[in-house]
Amino acid sequence: MVESAHTVVISDHKLYYRVMGQGEPLVLIHGYGTSGYVWQRVLPYLCQNYRVFVLDLPGYGRSAAPRSWRLRAIAPVIAAWLHSLHLPPVAVIGHSMGGAIAIHLTALAPETVRKLVLVDAAGLPLSSSFPTLALRAAYSMIQPGNGRYPLQMVLDAVQPRFRVLWQTSQEMLRSDLRLELASITSPTLIIWGERDALLPIALGYALNAALPHAMFVSLSGCGHRPMLAQPERFSHIVLDFLQAHDTPAQG
């Protein structure tokens, strides 16, 4: 699997991303506390059919940290980045916090996103305190059904970036993208691990209710990171969805 690595400055944000594969563009957005390497185990499958762009969000992985991390500041940066690449409308997969950003991106720049996949995604009010969420997040890292963590993801996750992590956590506690969800018309797939300890599957059902046109798939035996726990099954579900919507309608 041949990949190229890039660093670009967009709206004063220094972003790092990797590109691999051939075909229609597919953008992967990781969640809280990790980096683009959280997708590593699904790349061999996705890259067979798509040109995959794996982004490190601002302040994560190898992307520089902004002075102040604000959830609603991230999607405009990603939209500007995609426009700078002169890509056709892309498919986007967002996990957890990255799902919230993908929701905002799709509502903000609908001409940019033609298909959306939300994986154990944030975006609805969490109705939990920070200590409770912190405990759930810690357990979600070690609970059965998470798969093996790629080494580079672990190295990225243990970087000392306490300010970014604190600011991000406060932003996620306040996140409420119900207005954005109501505006989304792009074909959407929601995937959820049935054993998710951080964002329980009840949130997935609520997200599906907010997107009545979406497809919903739950994965038994999976925790918060189904792309690590069951990479082959996860990839086939995603590819079936994306390729179905890539097929021109017959008439």
Automatic annotation (TrEMBL):
Keywords, sorted A to Z: Hydrolase
User: Coiled-coil regions in this chain?
Assistant: none
Where does the record locate the signal sequence feature? none
Which ranges carry the AB hydrolase-1 domain? 26-234
Identify the Pfam families for this entry: Abhydrolase_6 (PF12697)
Gene Ontology cellular-component terms for this entry are:
membrane
- Known InterPro entries for this protein? AB_hydrolase_1, AB_hydrolase_fold, AB_hydrolase_sf
GO molecular function (one): hydrolase activity
Q: What is this protein called?
A: Dihydrolipoamide acetyltransferase
Protein source organism: Reticulibacter mediterranei
Q: What is the lineage of its organism?
A: Bacteria, Bacillati, Chloroflexota, Ktedonobacteria, Ktedonobacterales
